[in-house]
Specification:
281 residues; alpha/beta; 2 domains; 6-stranded mixed β-sheet; 34% helix; 22% strand
Length: 281
């Protein structure tokens, strides 16, 4: 495509009134989250993904919402994609030069701008990290530097990491029971019941899905499908004996999230021992 045209920007148009309505409906649910059992995805998840992967977010129909509601929506969107430029409009009226006057698209940065993906990327093993899990001190320092919109509207995110398998029943019950204020959650999980398979969690508002994408590298090594020498560099960096690359690595994004309570709930999900021996997170 670069031989014939230049992609200036990936633009997502956000229906301001509809997005807020869907978000508030999800927040008001009292009976927990809907678990998706098919590959059909809810509209709200698609809306979130379009916001997460964009260079420019156009909040439309601002004439149908109050200024404080537009501020709230903008903060939600910044919590999903801090890289994107955000502009407000009525009837989708935006100056053509504003859209096409400069190139915002970057093949690498645009496609990995989602806040959850940025959070996981930031946790890639640092030099000298034997466990593949970064220090809580680094996470605390990052939290202390939260942007002002997070402080004003309570938008926040955090990452949960552990090196012990969940008991699936407890983990699913915690997620499905409803975590107040949760807008988005994504990441990898490891269960005792399916120890060889890499689980992937996706929460979008009131809908939750669990997928098993592939096999942990550790499982493939243990089963003789690959040798240790075949592991990619990143997997080697993430490796921690005795369970290899198996791990919990989950990002939570929302409004007024009770991080301490969620962490406490997640720490009740792991089994008490792995392979007959106690295993620490």
């Amino acid at each position: 495509m670069g031989d014939f045209a230049t992609l200036a920007s990936l633009v997502s148009v956000i229906d301001g009134a509809d997005f807020l309505r869907r978000w508030r409906e999800d927040r008001s649910k009292k009976d927990g989250r809907e678990v998706l059992t098919t590959h059909e995805r809810p509209v709200f998840e698609l809306l979130l993904e379009q916001a997460e992967c964009a260079d420019l977010l156009l909040i439309n129909k601002c004439d149908l919402i109050r200024p404080d509601e537009a501020d709230e929506l903008e903060s939600l969107l910044r919590g999903l994609n801090a890289r994107a430029e955000i502009v407000r409009a009525e009837q989708s009226r935006v100056d053509a030069d504003f859209l096409l006057g400069r190139v915002r698209f970057d093949a690498q940065e645009t496609l990995r701008a989602a806040a959850w993906l940025e959070s996981l990327s930031a946790l890639l093993p640092a030099a000298g990290s034997a466990s593949g899990l970064r220090s809580p001190l680094l996470r605390s320092a990052a939290a202390a530097a939260r942007p002002s919109h997070e402080e004003k509207y309570g938008i926040r995110s955090f990452v949960f990491q552990a090196r012990r398998p969940f008991e699936a029943r407890k983990f699913f019950a915690l997620i499905e029971g409803g975590l107040p204020g949760l807008l988005r959650a994504k990441g990898y999980f490891w269960t005792q019941e399916r120890p060889d398979e890499m689980g992937f969690l996706s929460v979008a508002g009131g809908a939750t899905s669990y997928d098993f994408l592939s096999y942990w590298w550790a499982a493939m090594v243990e089963n003789g499908r690959v040798g240790l020498e075949h592991r990619p560099e990143l997997i080697v960096a993430l490796w921690a004996e005795p369970h290899g690359d198996r791990r919990q690595e989950l990002v939570f994004i929302g409004v007024g999230l009770e991080e301490a309570a969620i962490r406490a709930g997640l720490t009740t999900c792991p089994v008490q021992s792995v392979g007959g021996a106690a295993s620490a997170c």
